Structure formats: C-alpha cells, structure tokens
Amino acid sequence: MPPLTILKGTLDVLVLKTLTWGPMHGFEITTWLEEQTREGLDIEDAALYQALRRLEERGFLEAELGLTENNRRARYYKLTTTGRAHLRAETTRFTRYAEMVLAVLATPAARA
Amino acid sequence: MLRPGIRRLFGLDLPRTDRIAAELHDEMELHLELRTQQLIARGLSPAAARAQARRLFGDSSDAIRDIAQHARRRERTIKRRFTLDSLAQDVRFALRTLGRQKAWTAVAIVTLALGIGANTAVFSVVNDLILDPLRYPHADRLILLSRAIPASGVTVSPSVELLDAWRGARSLEGIEGYANNDLTLAAGGDPRIVHATSASRTFPAFSGAHLVTGRWFNADEERAGAAPVAVLGERLWRAQFNGDASVLGRSITIEGKPTTVIGVMQDGVRMPSWGSDPTDLWVPFTPAVKFLGGPAVARLRAGMSVTQAQQELASIATRLDGPANPARHSMVFTIAVARPGIGAETRQSVFMLAGAVCLLLLIACANVAHLLLARGATRERELAVRAALGAGRGRIMRQLVTESMMLALAGCVAGLLVGVASLRVIVAMRPPNMSTLANVHIDARVLLATMCVSLLTGLAFGLVAALQGKGDRTFSILRSSVGGSEGAGHHRLRSLLVVTESAMSVVLLVGATLLIRTVINLRDIDPGFDARNVYAMPVTLPEGRYPSEASRVQYGSQLLEQAKRIPGVSQATIASSVPTKSGLMIAEWMADGEQLPAAAKGNGFTAMNRVRPDYFALMRMPLVAGRGFDAGSSQRNEVVISRSLAKQLFRNAQAVGRGFRARDAGPSPSGPPKWMIVSGVVEDASLFSLSDLRNSAVVYFPEEPTKSSDFTLVLKMRDGAPPLTAALRKVSLALDPAMSPPAVLKLTEELMGTIAQQRFIMTLLTLFAVLAVVLSAVGLYGVIAYMVSRSTREIGIRVALGAARRDVARLVTRQGLMLSGIGLAIGLLASLWGTALLKKDLYGVTATDPLSYVVGAMVLLVLAAAACVAPTVRALRIDPMTAMRSE
C-alpha cells in the first residue's frame, strides 16, 4: 500500500505530539514521525519545516540553536506551555472527530 | 548563540532578515545531510541517496519563501512589542516622576498653557481678520477696488456707474459690488430691523456661497420695477421661520412692501467691507441701489497681472468721469490685493498684538526650559545612580525626553482650554469694527503650530538636561554628595534665559503702559459737547408708509411732543444726526471773494447736519462767534459752521457774515449758485471718534430735519432720571405700530465705543504684559532659589567667618538684580524699536514717552526684587554649623 497523503491540519498536531518527547531538530522530528507511522504517512520535508515555523510564530514552539551528537549546529524546537495546552485541546478534538467518523463508517451498509 | 530573550535583555541587535535566511539554509542543509546519511546506511549509493533526499524534501523554493516570511513576521512582532513595551514603561515612569513633584509640574504646565492658550486665541483672530478674510474661491486672483481721495488718502467705494463700466473690463473674470441697508421686515410679529445686503445675480457663483434652499435672483428681478423678491439669511430663516422650507413663495413685508421669498442663503458669507454685520436678508441689486457699501471685489482673469488690470480700470474710470466733473476728477482709484477685511490701521494693531503674544509664548517656553534645566541639575544624582546600575546613555536620554514631551503634551491640552476661554473673552470684548469676530473659532492649524513650538522646546531642553548628566561624570557626582557644583556653561544658559525673559517683558510692559496712557488721554478729551445724560434715537421712516414730506414732518413733531412728556426729560430736539453717527459728504468749498480755480478748501470731508435752533443749547456746544439759529435763519440762507471749517475757509479772518459754497454747486432756480452765509461758529465736536477731532468740518443747516426720512431724536435727561428705553419704545409703538421701535443710544457710551479699538488692544496688551512679567519673575525666582540651595555651604562658611546678615542678603539679591538689570537695558532698547509699531494706536503720548519707559522698568525691577525675597530669607536662615556638617 502506498503511503497515505496527510490530511490537512493534522501535521501540526503530529509535530506538537512529537515534541512532547523533548526538544528535537527538524530531521529528528521527521525520523521520529516516520518510525511511529512506519513510513505509512507521506510527509513532505518542506511541509514539515513550514509547519515548524508556523507553530513557532503562533507561540506553540520555541527555537533554540544547539549542537547535535556529531557537533553540528542545529535548530532545536521545544514545546511551550501554550503549545502543550494547544496540543491537549487539539488531541481531544481530533479523537472525538475520528471516533464519530469511525462510528458512522462502522454501521452495516444499507441495502441498495 | 544567544537566546532572543537574553539578546533583548542586553539590548543587542535582534537577528535581521539575512541572518534568518542563512539560518534557514543551514537548517535545511543539515536535514539533507542527515537524510543522505540515513539512506546510505540503508544501502543506497551516496549519489542516489543525495538525490533521494532532495526528492523527499519536496519543493524547497516555495517552502523557503514561505518559511522566511513567517520568520520575518515573527521577528517584527517581537521587535514591535519590545518598542511599545519600553515606550509604555517610559511614559509610566515619566508620569510617576512628574506626579512626585506636583508643584513643579503644575508650574510648568500652567506656564505652557498660558503661552499656548494666548497664542492660539490671538492667532485664530489674526487668521480670521487678516490672513483669510474672504474665503472666496481663487483667492489668489481676488482684488478689491476702491477710490482714494488724494488729499487725505481716505478710500471710498466706487460709484455704481463705475462698477457697471468696470463690468466690461477684459482683465477681470468677474466683479461684484454690493450695498448694505438696514431694512424693516414684517413677517408676523413685531416689525424688526434686519441687516440687508443687495447683491447681484452672479454673486453666489463669484463668492462660492451656496443656497440652503430655493433659488437666487435672476436677471429679470434686477430690472427697475420688477416685483420685489428676497432671499433670507439662514440665521433669520431658522430664527423667524423655524427653518421651514415652505417659506419659499411666501410673502413678507419689507419696508412696507409685500415681497416674495425665493430662497435661503447659507450663513457665514463674507463681504469685503470693513467689519460688516452678518447679512440676514438678501435683496437684488436693482437700479434703485445708489451707493456701494464697500469696495467692489473682482477676480482677475487667469494670467492677468494686477498692473494690467490697474491700467485698464484706471482708463475706464477716467473715460467715465470725463473732464466735466471736477469733483470726481480729483479722485484716484486704488486697487488692493484682497487681503483687508479690515482697515490698514487695525491690521497693523492686530499684527502688533500677534507679535506681543509671540513674545509671551517665547517667555513661557524660556520658563519651562528653566524648570527643566533646574530639575535636570537636581536629578544628576538620580541619573548617575541609574547609569551606574547599567542604564545606557540613550535609555536615560529617552527617559528625559519622554518626560519633557509628556509635560509639553499636558501643556497643550491645558493650553487648548485656556485658548478656548481666551477666545471667548476676546470675542466678547471685540470693538465694533471687528464684528466678524463673533464667528471666530479656534483654528486647528494655529493650535498645531503652537503645539509644535512647545513640543520642540520640551524636546530641546529635555535633551540639554539629559546631556548634562554625562556618563564620564557619573563617578564624581556619586562621590560628592551635597553641594556638587553646576557646570559653568549650564549656568550661563540659565542666566541667558533670565536676561531674555526680562528683556521681552520690558517691551510688553512699555507697550502696555503707552496704551494705558493713550486710553486715559482719550477718555479725558473734551469731545466739544456735553454728552452726559444725552440720549439719541436715530429714526428711519419707511418710505412706503411716509411718502410725503408733510407726513414725515407730522410724525417728527408728534414724536418730539410725546418724548418731551416722558418723565425725566429736561430738553428734547431733533437733528439729522448726532456726533459719532455723522454722515460725511465729500465737498470742496470755496469762500466768497476768492479766485475761483485755486479756491478749493479743506481735505474733502464735511459733515452736514440739519438741526433745530435749540440743538446747540441741548448739546452745550458753545458758540465761538456770531449767533445761532432763529425762525428766519433758513430764509436768510444762514448756516452755522464748526471752528475747524471756519479756519479752513477763512483762515484766521472773521468768519461771521462771510459766504461760501460748494465749488461745483449748480445754479439756483433764481440764477447763479447761492452762497451760504455764516451766522455763527461753534466749537468742534468729535464726528466719528474721540481720537479724531481734526476731521471735524461741519455745516449746520437751519432746515427742518424731519423733512428727510432719516433723523435723530435727541434727549437731555435730568440726573437720576428713570430708564428711557421702555418709555420711548411705548411712544414709538403708539405713534406707528407697524414700525420697528428704533434703538436708543447713550451718547457717553457711543463716545467710549469710538475708542473701543484702543481699549481692546490696551486690555489685551496689558494682560500679556502682566503674564509676561509674572512668568519672568517666576523664572528669576527659580534661578536665584536654585543658586541659594547650591551655595548653602558657601553661605554657611561666610556666616561662620563673620559675614553680617546684610552681606548675605546682598550676595543673593545682587545676582538676581544684575540679571534683570541686563535684561532691562536690552528690553528698553528693544522697546524703542517695538513701540514704533504702536504709533498709530497712541494718542497724546509719543512712542518714546519717557514716563512709560520708567514705569515699565520700575514694574520689572519691583517684581525682580520680589522674586529674590524668598531665596534671600532662606539664605539668611542658614545655620553655619548645620550647613558645614551636612557633608
């Protein structure tokens, strides 16, 4: 099965969720997400970086320069308090949404 | 790399856009590199891995643009928030600091408010009277046309014929003349007199005035014998017709004639006459209009110069006058670029006031500068502490500037209030020739300009105060506790300010004294008659109701009879006019027995007054020679003339019994022109104004005044008589209920009214002078008090070493008086130049009147001495032990 196209708006939540594990730079976030989804979601790298800046602008993330394990300078992203709150709210919303969609889809098909 | 927060804390530069782009690039490079490594680890060749990494990254160009934009926006918000935060902080801090020193702040704000307020009010007036009097479109091409009499330089309106002749001039795009009339209007309710203006059918297009409703006059309505129509003024329309549009087509009664209302004209239409009242009623410019009510106003054709127009109009005037009419021929016509609105003399006086109020603003600004400097000096320690704690020089400077700006802003708000109040006072005090002032409002541009001046002052001296707390002095100031000495340059600046203020105050004081003396002189002038308890009621009989001479004479004699019966009236008579309300004629006289061609006499102005024989007795006008009138005077062609006219006509020779006539008098029915025989000479009386006795050539005729429809009832009352107005009103209404009861004038008040302009200018100038001298005294006090507080130790040591109290007092006072003394000397010199502007407003004093200079100097010195008292007392109280121990 080819990787699924990501639904609009979900990337932000995924990024925020990823960062609950601690500050990461862009590539770390990509890798983490790929591992979690077993590469089943098609996330374009460029889109990810856009999402990062967007979240930073809204104050959900803070960026800080730091060093990687190999002593490379990288931009590390960290969740802010408002970011955490936003993630909580979005998770609830998204879960309820998914549940409702599932509930509808799970009913037996009507006869034509 | 530092975090933005930390960078902000230390005031370092925030990342700029190019740095953001570079960061972004690095970030993506890192990503690609790590991805490549990851793919190689999964077994791809390096080249394939690199290509795959790029593919996975997706379209980077769009993303880069998008990301960069986001980043830039974010940095901008942070920066803005930071600037706003620190500005708010500065403002809060400034308010707190100013609030801590309430007295200081109050003095500064009040000072600024006075300066700004007075300026805003006066310049609003100047703007209205002088800079922008007409407000017609294309004002740059407007010219005023009037004629001047060469001998006296007095200007008169052009004749209606001349106006008509000028209409065809090629250099003009349009020309308008108008006439003023007080007409009796009856439209339900009591008849009343309204100010009416005759204007041509092209007037709205010319002046830009527009109708509220209805239409303006057309060509047919300007013809002789057309059915009368009128346009109401908006004010009258609202007051008398409740702004009802159905008034159009209604018939109202004007001067007894039914007239149809065809339109309503907006309020605030300005006329180029000298301070005319607002028009309440507009009537067509019919051939019945014989005289213009002021200069004609014309608009030059685009591209035409004033000189070209002048040549063309002059040649038209010469052609029209012709050589046959010598009286007109002796007039030349002038053309003035449309600026007056008021006479040239008034204009000069108003400019003078404007100059005076500018001085006042300068003094106010100087005072605020003082205050800021003095405060800056006492705050040196506070600032030094803040500098030591790490506040940058720029930061401290910004703080001080913010404080001065807050102060200036508060001053502006208070100044606006003062301005509104002063303008009300000015409008209430306005002399009659500035009646248009009633509509003056605070001019926003003026307020803005004044605000700018005070804000700049605040800024400039806030900066000076800030600069004086120099960084390299921080240490020494912290170390020396009390008694740190002030910089010499700084002290010089403050002294300079005191000197300047004193000098400017002196100029204002001298000017005010000169005007006060003028008004006193004017009040003491003998007007040539006794105005005490004399009342005048100028009557205008509507010609429609009193068409015949007999009907008018009958009305007059009935009025006189009834008036005599009013309680308290001791004498009553009728004359054409009374002094201050005289009508003038331009005439050139020739005396009998003189060569005809060279015999023109006088400056061209003579007042004519038809009087009853008892007029001279009632007015207490003494006969200088000959006798007054009796019943046969008219038959014998006798006249009484004023002393000035007698002197003009017959020089110092005996005038009684001599004859004279107008140079261009036509032949009498019975043959050659008649000579008027002088039967007596009376003392001169002020014709127009107390300040203008020199123009009092008058011919008194023994003819019945009530033969004409304009005459004046003159009453002399006993001391303590009851008020007259109500009784006269009753008499008038009983005689003719359809006639509006005329106003009753008190002659003493009318006389005072003639010097209203001098009194107006005197009052304002005195007010400015008082404000100025008080402000500079406050400034002087500030400097001396500051000096004393700074030299507490020095004084203490002197006292300890045996200085007497007198020596201490002298030490303190000498400083203050020396500064004001220098200012005084400069001020007196400046006054010699400044008071020259006042020359035309003065009467009985010269602009260099020594007494006024002495008075001005004394007032300043007394106030300067007073300003030194409090600091001196404080200096005397200094206890040497405490002063020296306070280290």
Polypeptide structure, described:
Chain A is of the alpha+beta class. Chain A has a single domain, classed as Arc Repressor Mutant, subunit A (Orthogonal Bundle). Chain A has four helices and five strands, in the order βαβαβαββα. Chain A has a three-stranded antiparallel sheet. A two-stranded parallel sheet of chain A has the order 1-3. In chain A, strand 4 and strand 5 form a beta hairpin. The radius of gyration of chain A is 17 Å and the shape is elongated. By secondary structure, chain B is of the alpha+beta class. Chain B folds into five domains: 4-89, no CATH class; 101-133 and 344-480, no CATH class; 139-337, no CATH class; 505-525 and 753-887, no CATH class; 534-720, no CATH class. Chain B contains 26 helices and 24 strands. In chain B, the strands form four sheets. In chain B, strands 15, 16, 17, 18, 19, 20, 21 and 22 form an eight-stranded mixed sheet that branches. A six-stranded mixed barrel of chain B has the order 4-5-10-7-9-8. In chain B, strands 1, 2, 3, 11 and 12 form a five-stranded antiparallel sheet that branches.
Short description:
The complex is a heterodimer of chains A (112) and B (887). By secondary structure, chain A is an alpha+beta fold.
Short descriptors:
heterodimer; A: 112 residues; alpha+beta; Arc Repressor Mutant, subunit A; three-stranded antiparallel sheet; B: 887 residues; 5 domains; eight-stranded mixed sheet; six-stranded mixed β-barrel; 51% helix; extended
